[in-house]
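Subject: sequence -> structure tokens, single chain

Hey, anyone have a minute? Need the predicted structure for the following. Not urgent.
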Amino acid sequence: MRPPYLLLDVDGVLIPFPDEAGASPASHIRHEVVPTGRSVDDPVTVWLNPVHGPLLMNIIRSGLVTPVWCTSWRQDATNLVGPLLGLPPLPYIDLPRPQITTSHPNGYLWKRDYVDMWLGDAPAAWIDDDFTDLDHGWAAERTTRGQAAALVQPDPHVGLLAEHLVEVLARAALLLVAQGDVPTVPREAEAA
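Reply:
Had a minute. Here:
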């Protein structure tokens, strides 16, 4: 069996939203990036935590999940955000650019239908800051049907924490053990 996918959002997860005073967490460093379609004269400011890169690399090296960007940043996540964190190029779900005014036009996260189609029957852990109760119900239904789905929801003003990744690894390991398909640990991960 292929390891579960780790679907990773960017905004509100790796790039937390400013707090009420307009500040980003002190752990994050300011960067200027130029997303696709923008001019170099009009960069976007992002705040990234340099600790996230090594944490995510440990997840990647574990072999317990297959990481995939699941964000409106699309290819820019792998071309702009990932390199600032020291991540290798990761695949991404090519989400459309919907004409919506809310991220929950049908009461659930707009990405969900596209993710459901993209996943098929593959298991996944999905880290996003914007799930609703309907999304959690969807994940429970998938899991009941044998298509395991775990949703991990960071606070959008804090972003990704180490405990979120511990939760992902624990769920992925349990899924693989239940299916009798535990990957071997690479030698470099044993020494870490």
